[in-house]
Records
---
Amino acid sequence: MNTSKVRVEVVDQFLLQFSFRLVIETLSEVSPDRKCFRMIGGVLVERTVKEVLPALEANRDKASFNPLFFTMSFHSNQCTYRSQP
């Protein structure tokens, strides 16, 4: 993997985390019984905030990215990385 692809992956991960945080913070401020919509497998479904919030938090945790554990090693102008400790 070249370094530009790694940079794109890092930016994608940060944007994903930012998106999760923004939606979770927004939904945390509304009534748990309020209706909201969620895309599941390409289908838009109606749920309540209390149903969606735990799923969002779980998905955020699965997609977590910690730059402290981001390491790169270079071999002949190629780059590999791992995002786990």
Note: Confidence is low (pLDDT under 50) at residues 71-81.
---
Amino acid sequence: MTVQPGYGAAGAARAQMRASTVDRDRAVELITRAYTEGRLSKEEHDARVERAMTAGTFADLDSVVIDLPGGRPSPPPAPPATNTLAIISLSCGIGQLIGSRGARSAGRVRPARGWRWPA
């Protein structure tokens, strides 16, 4: 199992969610990788592993790994792009419907120029 980049910081809704065994294992892998890279002492590694294994929520896990590489929050997803052409087309279509309702209700719907009733 590999630790995903951006494991870290808890968002408002995510912070109180219960952490699973898989989440705890990912945190331990991140801590162990930092230890093998020389970023943590043996004592700090052991203390963090203990805290990670007893963590109940994502906020608890995040507090253990937030200062390690890969423990920072990933940027929030970009909002979906707005399709301006679709919005304009929809507005024009609604305008056409509203505009043609008045003509139909008055009984004055006229065919297009050059159009004749079939014989």
Note: The helical segments are 21-36, 42-53, 58-65, 84-105.
---
Amino acid sequence: MGDIGNSWQQYQMQVEWGYWDQKPGEIRKVKALTNKPFAVNYIFPMGEASEDPFTNAVFDVLAKENVKNVIAIGQNVVERELKRLKEHDIKVLYRDLSPTVLTH
């Protein structure tokens, strides 16, 4: 089962890669534990991949379980994925794989 952490009054569900057929049960457990918003990690397809079986499996679970928030990571924002998430009213917080800080 994923660990649930409380950060900025929002729960983020940490899930292991793979075994997405078992994740609906974990999402339901989180929903039973809190009435606060929570997020599930979401990985945008890497490189020029037009299809990603892992991303598709995660999306299917998110849509089926009516998850409303994701924390997305990737080399860049993949517009078709962003559109697909928004079509299901899923809010996206994006974090770059290699964030940098500019100093003056």
Note: The beta strands are 4-7, 10-13, 38-43, 69-74, 91-96.
---
Amino acid sequence: MPAHTLSAPSFEVVKAMTLAGLGIGVLPHRVAHQDLQRGLLKRAIMANVIPTSFGFHSFGLVTRNGTLDRPEARILLDVIQSELTKLTLSI
């Protein structure tokens, strides 16, 4: 469990915190799209399409460009990707 977890009232606040370098954010494509295109955010991982009770969705994380160069970020993302793969295979 991370030492610090931040919560936010909206995806726009999560995006602002991610852009400020405060961590990794989970954002809908519609919120992250422009900053991904500009290179300000980078898609960290993208899992396979996961079926849910409200349709099929892909899951991804975004991070400020350059954050993935840090070893601890790569370790965290590898663990998340492994867990998402298990989830996808069990559905």
Note: The CA atoms of residues 79 and 85 lie 10 Å apart.
